[in-house]
């Protein structure tokens, strides 16, 4: 860029004062300032447009790579699905020829109510099995030691 120091700026101002004159110098300085501002805005707009076009190109490249990866995944899934279907057909065709024999399922506690009811009440009382539910207050009253006066 142009190297404008304080001494060069003072020299340019002195020459402008002599050439333009003191009456017209403020108006010319304002006009030059607005023109420089417009030029800077134009340069900034051009830079922004170039950056946007570069980003757009990068996004297009990224989109193409993502689409290509998606196509590859789709083809691999479809080939895997086809292989699975073939294997499934082979397995099901052999399974249909000879059905597997599984033992019949029996629930482990199928008759637990009957078994619980089969124990005599006197045996439950002697073994300490609770047959009736007690509330907290009833339990405290039952097991609280009595005071003898």
UniProtKB/TrEMBL annotation:
<comment type="similarity">
    <text>Belongs to the TatB family.</text>
</comment>
<keyword id="KW-1133">Transmembrane helix</keyword>
<keyword id="KW-0653">Protein transport</keyword>
<dbReference type="GO" id="GO:0033281">
    <property type="term" value="C:TAT protein transport complex"/>
</dbReference>
<keyword id="KW-0811">Translocation</keyword>
<dbReference type="InterPro" id="IPR003369">
    <property type="entry name" value="TatA/B/E"/>
</dbReference>
<keyword id="KW-0472">Membrane</keyword>
<dbReference type="GO" id="GO:0043953">
    <property type="term" value="P:protein transport by the Tat complex"/>
</dbReference>
<keyword id="KW-0997">Cell inner membrane</keyword>
<keyword id="KW-1003">Cell membrane</keyword>
<comment type="subunit">
    <text>The Tat system comprises two distinct complexes: a TatABC complex, containing multiple copies of TatA, TatB and TatC subunits, and a separate TatA complex, containing only TatA subunits. Substrates initially bind to the TatABC complex, which probably triggers association of the separate TatA complex to form the active translocon.</text>
</comment>
<comment type="function">
    <text>Part of the twin-arginine translocation (Tat) system that transports large folded proteins containing a characteristic twin-arginine motif in their signal peptide across membranes. Together with TatC, TatB is part of a receptor directly interacting with Tat signal peptides. TatB may form an oligomeric binding site that transiently accommodates folded Tat precursor proteins before their translocation.</text>
</comment>
<protein>
    <recommendedName>
        <fullName>Sec-independent protein translocase protein TatB</fullName>
    </recommendedName>
</protein>
<keyword id="KW-0813">Transport</keyword>
<dbReference type="GO" id="GO:0008320">
    <property type="term" value="F:protein transmembrane transporter activity"/>
</dbReference>
<keyword id="KW-0812">Transmembrane</keyword>
<feature type="region of interest" description="Disordered">
    <location>
        <begin position="90"/>
        <end position="109"/>
    </location>
</feature>
<dbReference type="InterPro" id="IPR018448">
    <property type="entry name" value="TatB"/>
</dbReference>
<dbReference type="Pfam" id="PF02416">
    <property type="entry name" value="TatA_B_E"/>
</dbReference>
């Amino acid at each position: 860029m142009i190297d404008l120091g304080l001494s060069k700026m003072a020299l340019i101002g002195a020459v402008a004062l002599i050439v333009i004159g003191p009456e017209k110098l403020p108006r010319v300085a304002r006009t030059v300032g607005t023109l420089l501002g417009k030029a800077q805005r134009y340069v900034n707009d051009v830079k922004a447009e170039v950056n946007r076009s570069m980003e757009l190109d990068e996004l297009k490249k990224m989109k193409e790579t993502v689409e290509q990866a998606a196509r590859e995944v789709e083809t691999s899934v479809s080939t895997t699905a086809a292989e699975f279907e073939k294997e499934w057909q082979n397995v099901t065709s052999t399974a249909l020829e000879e059905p597997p024999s599984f033992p019949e399922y029996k629930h482990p506690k199928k008759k637990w109510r009957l078994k619980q009811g089969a124990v005599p009440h006197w045996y439950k009382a002697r073994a300490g099995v609770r047959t009736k539910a007690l509330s907290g207050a009833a339990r405290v009253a039952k097991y609280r030691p009595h005071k003898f006066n």
